């Protein structure tokens, strides 16, 4: 049985309504102020139903405030949040069709895994047998059946995440909100659980809105990346669009692996893997000195300082590097194809 068909079975017995239909989510000029601080500044955004959306940006840029306003955990200072055709500004969290999964998973330490998952049904007054049955069905979906009677402290980080996911999904949400859901995990587990999140989102067909400061995580997961800076949206696009055509200097620097180069009175981004190194005084490049060489396995990062002072990063494949190795202090020529430059907004 696929997750999606199990999901339908789960929510259709005992006269239960069909699962919530996936719905579009829209923010219209949404603003959040805390006293003098403008945390979110007129953010407008439309997330089509069934989208994996990552809100990406540095700490303090307004990601969590945005998520909390969608969830109903924070008042909206101005603007509207719409789910489907309903303005949800004044609805309590449980009436919005959203569910939230927190960074620390916020599992109740004294409740068993099954009771954690069933918790919101208990609050809603669902009978004991019915809620245990649905909790067990969800635990089956996230492959945690055999841990149903354990306490959260008896689970690994990845297992806790699956329980938190089951607990959030049991309310049958239209939109699942995830606040830095992978940050408590070690790097190996993070990559594995990231793939699981993506799989569940695809199979349930609802929107996931996932807050992260990791560009790598956003690139790996998102259909739609929303890059935020200082309470505003800098750019919205697919991971490829954002990576290949960053709109602003901020996005180019934040996404990383780009050089930001001022030339001809304008500013360009050029991907680090598009830089070519040649012997000094080559006709098609500028003089530069190697300031750092970092071996990365499949590639080698070479940091350079051009004679005009511009710092550059070149990422070479291991084999290209091996054909013409350089070391710190070497003089080289660095260049690129004009077509590989991408102009940034002022
Ligand atoms: P992010 O999730 O991107 O780290 P936040 O939404 O948490 O950003 O915060 C955005 C801004 O709002 C920051 O300047 C932060 O200090 C401020 N802020 C967040 N929550 C509160 C609060 N409860 N009271 C006052 N300021 C807050």
From TrEMBL:
Coiled-coil region list: none
Subcellular location: Cell inner membrane
Statement: the UniProt record of this protein carries the keyword Transport: yes
Source domain of life: Bacteria
UniProt keyword annotations, A-Z: ATP-binding, Nucleotide-binding, Transport
SMART domains: AAA
Membrane topology value: Peripheral membrane protein
GO cellular component, one term: ATP-binding cassette (ABC) transporter complex
InterPro entries named in the record: AAA+_ATPase (IPR003593), ABC_SmlMolc_Importer (IPR050093), ABC_transporter-like_ATP-bd (IPR003439), ABC_transporter-like_CS (IPR017871), Mo/tungstate-bd_C_term_dom (IPR008995), P-loop_NTPase (IPR027417), Transp-assoc_OB_typ2 (IPR013611)
Location of the ABC transporter domain: 25-255
Keyword Transport listed: yes
Signal peptide limits: none
PROSITE patterns xrefs: ABC_TRANSPORTER_1, ABC_TRANSPORTER_2
Main localization of the protein described in the UniProt heading: membrane
GO molecular function: ABC-type transporter activity; ATP binding; ATP hydrolysis activity
Family, as annotated: Belongs to the ABC transporter superfamily.
Name used for this protein in its record: ABC transporter ATP-binding protein
């Amino acid at each position: 049985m696929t997750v999606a068909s199990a999901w339908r079975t789960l929510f259709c017995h005992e006269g239960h309504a069909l699962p919530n239909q996936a719905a579009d989510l829209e923010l219209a000029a949404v603003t959040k102020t805390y006293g003098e601080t403008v945390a979110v500044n007129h953010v407008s955004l439309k997330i089509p139903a069934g989208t994996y959306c990552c809100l990406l940006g540095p700490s303090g840029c307004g990601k969590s405030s945005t998520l909390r306003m969608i969830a109903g955990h924070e008042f909206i200072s101005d603007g509207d949040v719409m789910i489907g055709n309903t303005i949800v500004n004044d609805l309590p969290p449980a009436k919005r069709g959203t569910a939230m999964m927190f960074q620390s998973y916020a599992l109740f330490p004294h409740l068993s895994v099954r009771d954690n998952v069933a918790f919101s049904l208990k609050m809603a007054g669902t009978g004991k047998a019915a809620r245990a049955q649905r909790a067990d069905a969800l635990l089956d979906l996230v492959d945690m059946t055999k841990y149903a009677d354990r306490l959260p402290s008896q689970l690994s980080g990845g297992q806790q995440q699956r329980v938190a996911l089951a607990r959030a999904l049991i309310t049958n949400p239209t939109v699942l909100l995830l606040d830095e859901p992978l940050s408590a995990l070690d790097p190996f587990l993070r990559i594995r659980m990231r793939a699981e999140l993506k799989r569940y989102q695809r199979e349930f067909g609802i929107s996931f809105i996932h807050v992260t400061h990791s560009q790598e995580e956003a690139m790996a997961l998102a259909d739609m990346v929303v890059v935020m800076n200082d309470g505003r949206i800098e750019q919205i696009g697919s991971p490829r669009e954002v990576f290949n055509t960053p709109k602003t200097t901020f996005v180019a620097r934040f996404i990383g692996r780009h050089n930001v180069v001022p030339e001809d009175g304008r500013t360009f981004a050029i991907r680090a893997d598009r830089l070519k190194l040649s012997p000094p005084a080559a006709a098609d490049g500028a003089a530069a000195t190697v300031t750092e060489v970092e071996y990365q396995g499949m590639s080698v990062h070479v940091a350079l300082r051009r004679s005009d002072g511009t710092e550059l990063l070149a990422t070479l494949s291991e084999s290209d590097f091996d054909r013409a190795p350089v070391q710190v202090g070497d003089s080289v020529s660095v260049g690129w194809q004009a077509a590989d430059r991408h102009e940034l907004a002022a």
